[in-house]
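Holo prediction. Input below; ligand is fe (ii) ion.
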Amino acid sequence: MQFINPYFCVINDELPSYEEFYKKILSKNVVCLIDQRLTANWDCRKTWVTNDGAVNLDFLQAKYGNKMCPVYNCNKKYYDSNPSKMMHMKEFIEYWKTVISQNYNYESNDVLYLKDFHMFQEVTGSEDVYSVPQYFQSDYLNEYCLANKLTDYRFVYMGPKMSSTPLHVDVFGSFSWSANICGLKKWLLIPPKNVKKLKQLLPAVPGDLYSVPGHEEILKQVEAFEITQKGGQTLFVPSGFMHQVLNGEDTISINHNWINAANLTLIYDNIIEAHEQVQKEIKDLKATLSKEEWQENCQKILAMHFGINLTEFLKIISHIASRLEKESTKSTSSTQKFRFEHDVDVIFNVATKIRSNDHFESCWNQADMIQKQLSTIKHKKLAKLL
Ligand SMILES: O=C(O)CCC(=O)C(=O)O
Ligand SMILES: [Fe+2]
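Structure of the complex:
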């Protein structure tokens, strides 16, 4: 484990234990690039890639060609993203083949990028093409979504050389990890503590920071740093880091957004902050609504603008608390024990925060239930130790 700067570390020597990774990387919110060992055995690193390391377009077309996927136009701006439309994968791959045959002539072709494709939900059996590395397996968000048949946060990205993702912070401040199946990504990252400063330095957040006149000075001031991610490597992007990404070659990646004990409290704080903003923005409506209607409206707007609201957040932590309750009677390995104890403590503390927030009176019963469940587990554990 080698720190390149205070915010970024590379692992290409001994792989740390889960506990070490959790303590030094996840809970410290440090960006981490890990060599190809995490993906070495993935089926997609063989089948989606040709012998000479290029994207196996024919294989993808034959296997997934009839699937509908969101495709973004990198040349156009739509809020802080690009406009997108649904397309058959075979149509996108035809486009990709044309672009390659014309030597990436983007004067006569748009730069298109197939992103946010929920492949593992859309294509039965496709989950087998990869496996979630152990460092990222504690994932409340996808665990909850999959158990409740809700849209997941597991994606496939694929695009030709020069396709890109504009500058952004990930949805509700979740963690993300991104593994390159093949190709090369150039990342530009800005530490969370400097995001406000960046916004003050610029009239509006641009899609591409490199396009801003005088960007060299701005990048220095906000401690921005670059990372090159090659085929097989995995990048952990912690909560709140701003980032933009350019594919330096034809590239495919698998990405997850996720929440666990290491960022749960931060996500809760982000929801509270976003909730306060919503309240401010619609304060004129307050007098016209009953207390319940007012709270309900705030939650609806929060979900729409922020991607999650307190009701959904509570459902996620209740789901995890119930799973922990079931797990508490089973014998566990030391890694599972470490994870279990952190899960119990962090969820208990977040439930305490909800319980003491007057804005969320309607959620108190549920927070009480979670606390009861978890304190039973804690007592059981204590009794075992005595
Ligand atoms: O690879 C990309 O184009 C964007 C990835 C990204 O933003 C993420 O993993 O959070
Ligand atoms: Fe992102």
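The first strand starts at residue 2 and ends at 5. That is the main takeaway for now.
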